[in-house]
Amino acid sequence: TEKDKAPPSPFLSVLSDGWVKYRDDKIVMSTCKMHIFYFPFDIQRCRLSFKSILYTDEQLNICIKGNSTEITKKSLDTIRMQYEWKLLHITTNTTTGNYFGTNQTVIVYTITMERKSALYIVNFLLPVLFFLCLDFASLLMSNNGEKISFKITVLLAVTVMQLILNEILPFTSSRIPLI
């Protein structure tokens, strides 16, 4: 959780049946391992697990409000701009296990997102295909001197484009994208 990012709420709700509600908002920052082998046509699944460290099920009842369809619809209504990603769906799962000798509930949200690939097709794939066509077209040239200079020019253009587009490609040391 990010400390001091969410302002503390000064309000309590006292209900007629004696319950007192206090809203303590937290901002959760999370990272998820991405599988980018099929970039830019990749679909990512990220799991977020929530459980209490201090309290047992008898002391603290955590539960999911709504089903997966309702949560996905509410999330899609809340998100104003999706930029590079499209939220496909959110699934929820609740399990109860015995942790450190006490029963505790774990809520797992699985968020599935798809990368919007149109930007990468226009800025990455089409120029690469264009340079590939130019390279194949150079095979039809008859003069060897012009052919060599044209191939060197195409090679330099591909190298410059690769340097520029290197910032667009996601970085990973374990697996290189197929593209």
From TrEMBL:
Q: Does the keyword Kinase apply?
A: no
Query: Where exactly are the transmembrane stretches of this chain?
Result: 118-142
> What is the first-listed, main subcellular location in coarse terms?
membrane
The entry's protein name is: Neurotransmitter-gated ion-channel ligand-binding domain-containing protein
Q: Which residues form a coiled coil?
A: none
Does the keyword section mention Membrane? Answer: yes
PROSITE patterns attached here? Answer: NEUROTR_ION_CHANNEL
- Which PANTHER family is this protein grouped with? NEUROTRANSMITTER GATED ION CHANNEL
Q: Which UniProt keywords apply?
A: Membrane, Transmembrane, Transmembrane helix
Please provide an example of a Pfam family that matches this protein in its UniProt record: Neur_chan_LBD
Q: Where does the protein end up?
A: Membrane
**Neurotransmitter-gated ion-channel ligand-binding domain ranges (all copies):** 8-116
- What InterPro entries does the annotation carry? Neur_chan_lig-bd, Neur_chan_lig-bd_sf, Neur_channel, Neuro-gated_channel_TM_sf, Neuro_actylchol_rec, Neurotrans-gated_channel_TM, Neurotransmitter_ion_chnl_CS
* SUPFAM superfamilies found in the cross-reference section: Neurotransmitter-gated ion-channel transmembrane pore (SSF90112), Nicotinic receptor ligand binding domain-like (SSF63712)
Q: How does it sit in the membrane?
A: Multi-pass membrane protein
- In terms of superkingdom, the source organism counts as Eukaryota
Q: Where is the Neurotransmitter-gated ion-channel transmembrane domain?
A: 142-179
Q: Which organism is it from?
A: Xenotaenia resolanae
